[in-house]
């Protein structure tokens, strides 16, 4: 009998829009176990009138916790995943020009309208296969190029996960899955959409080399490399957190959809190649790069951000409720009384979200949710209905109806939302693992290190390392009527944003 392989630990740094964590992932040849070294909050704040991420503070947390982990045990490699679409700018000497700007800044709404007026929505989509949405990095870069002098001292543009890999290894390149969220990268060809950027009069000399997920870019450098992480490799994982979450998703079978549920809900299907057609353009579906040549055809849905902002507003008003409390209050409310389009621009920026939800309902003639429970129920039902619309649109463009939905991330713990999703879509909903993103990040590193064979091997290990919960659908005609109402709202909002003809 061959000896059991020694356990090996890698560090998965997983940064979301609301919080971040450093996770030690240990693989013993059979199971992949996670140990959270530490967590820390994240959020954008206004600086000089622009929403910015506190990169230096985040790096301080990451550096401290990686040091703690390295002093505790041997770490074979480290990799970072973050939210998508945002970038940072480096000077020629490698220093960060300023704190990266946030996709929720109102300037991006204006810049998207400008881009559509300059080249048309069709050209934006044809060049990239990327969903036209205000959050796309191309619109921030357009604003930088036309309305600020921010680019004057910039030499290199890096997506946010790549900024951390630059600090860890000195790498000045961007990772494929992160680049694919920017709105200036053609996922089908794996190249920057320089023709589009030329048409928008946006400089292309800032764009770096693109590397594949799973690339070993060398040892950790700096204080960490000279100390607690001496000998640790930097393995670039799937840098976009959704790509990592899908890598770590044990699908329920062929025809399964995924929902990576957190601040954003990204819902789609994993494919072998991009699908950018007039039908996907009309449905505003996006093609994002995945691991091992896969592509995720998906839609960005505003997700739990709306509920997160509601909770923050209620806390400011003196009512501090946990997410468990909020779901309990919503459970006592009748379903489908009020419906909103979660992707309406009303809900993009930070602020008094309960008031915005009430104003939206009043403007569209829906009952106004007055209580905390009614507001939360409105958000949950609206998300479930949006998942239904997305599932229908994906089936229409691919010709392949879904058979199930796999939900990962923090939102997989919300039983009310999971059951509402099953009821709305008529599909079984499999929930878990919660930590799919960290599992996917670590798994890509372990494949690069030779500990796992491939993506299928990783998903087999993930499925064996945790338990899933399944919610079966309950038929009700009320969901059909509410789904038709949501479609009306989506059409009206898209027309207002210039994404659909009036």
TrEMBL record:
Keyword Hydrolase: no
InterPro entries with a match to the protein in the record: ATPase_NBD, FGGY_C, FGGY_Carb_Kinase, FGGY_N, Rhamnulokinase
Pfam families cross-referenced by the UniProt entry: FGGY_C, FGGY_N
Family matches, as Gene3D superfamilies: 3.30.420.40
GO molecular function: ATP binding; rhamnulokinase activity
Annotated CDD domains: ASKHA_NBD_FGGY_RhaB-like
GO process annotations (BP): D-xylose metabolic process; rhamnose catabolic process
Keyword Mitochondrion: no
Family from the record: Belongs to the FGGY kinase family.
Domain Carbohydrate kinase FGGY C-terminal as annotated: residue spans: 258-448
Carbohydrate kinase FGGY N-terminal domain span: 12-248
Transmembrane segments: none
Species of origin: Modestobacter caceresii
The protein's name in its UniProt record: Carbohydrate kinase
Keywords for the protein's UniProt record, in alphabetical order: ATP-binding, Carbohydrate metabolism, Kinase, Nucleotide-binding, Rhamnose metabolism, Transferase, Xylose metabolism
């Amino acid at each position: 009998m061959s000896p059991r392989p020694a356990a090996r630990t890698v560090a998965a740094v997983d940064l979301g829009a609301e919080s971040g964590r450093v996770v030690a992932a240990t693989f013993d040849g059979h199971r992949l176990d996670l140990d959270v070294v530490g967590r820390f909050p994240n959020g954008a704040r206004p600086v000089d009138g622009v929403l910015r991420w506190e990169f230096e503070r985040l790096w301080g947390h990451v550096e401290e916790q990686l040091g703690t982990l390295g002093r505790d045990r041997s770490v074979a490699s480290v990799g970072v995943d973050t939210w998508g679409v945002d970038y940072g700018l480096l000077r020629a000497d490698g220093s960060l020009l300023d704190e990266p700007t946030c996709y929720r800044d109102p300037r991006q709404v204006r810049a998207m309208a400008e881009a559509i007026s300059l080249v048309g929505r069709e050209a934006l989509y044809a060049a990239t296969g990327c969903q036209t949405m205000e959050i796309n990095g191309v619109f921030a870069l357009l604003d930088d190029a036309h309305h600020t002098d921010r680019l004057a001292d910039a030499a290199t543009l890096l997506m946010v996960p790549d900024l951390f890999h630059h600090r860890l290894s000195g790498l000045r390149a961007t990772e494929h899955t992160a680049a694919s969220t920017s709105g200036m990268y053609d996922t089908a060809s794996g190249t920057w959409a320089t023709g589009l950027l030329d048409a928008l009069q946006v400089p292309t000399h800032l764009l770096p080399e693109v590397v594949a997920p799973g690339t070993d870019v060398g040892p950790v450098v700096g204080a960490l490399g000279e100390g607690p992480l001496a000998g640790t490799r930097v393995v670039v994982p799937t840098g976009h957190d959704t790509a990592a979450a899908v890598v770590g998703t044990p699908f329920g079978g062929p025809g399964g959809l995924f929902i990576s549920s957190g601040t954003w809900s990204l819902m789609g299907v994993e494919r072998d190649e991009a699908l950018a057609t007039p039908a996907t353009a009309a449905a505003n579906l996006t093609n994002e790069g995945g691991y091992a040549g896969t592509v995720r055809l998906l839609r960005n849905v505003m997700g739990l951000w709306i509920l997160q902002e509601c909770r923050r507003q209620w806390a400011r008003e003196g009512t501090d409720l946990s997410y468990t409390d909020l779901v309990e209050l919503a459970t006592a409310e009748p379903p489908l009384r009020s419906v909103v389009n979660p992707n309406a621009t009303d809900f993009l920026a930070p602020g008094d979200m309960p008031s915005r939800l009430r104003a939206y309902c009043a403007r569209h003639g829906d009952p106004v949710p007055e209580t905390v429970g009614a507001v939360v129920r409105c958000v949950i039902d609206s998300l479930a209905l949006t998942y239904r619309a997305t599932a229908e649109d994906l089936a229409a463009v691919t010709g392949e109806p879904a058979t199930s939905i796999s939900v990962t991330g923090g939102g997989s713990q919300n039983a009310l939302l999971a059951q509402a999703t099953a009821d709305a879509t008529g599909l079984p909903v499999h929930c878990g693992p919660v930590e799919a993103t960290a599992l996917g990040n670590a798994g890509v590193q372990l494949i690069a290190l030779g500990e796992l064979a491939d993506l299928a091997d990783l998903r087999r290990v993930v499925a064996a390392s945790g338990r899933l919960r399944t919610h079966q659908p309950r038929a009700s005609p009320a969901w059909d009527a509410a789904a038709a109402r949501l479609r009306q709202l989506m059409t009206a909002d898209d027309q207002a944003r210039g994404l659909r003809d009036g």
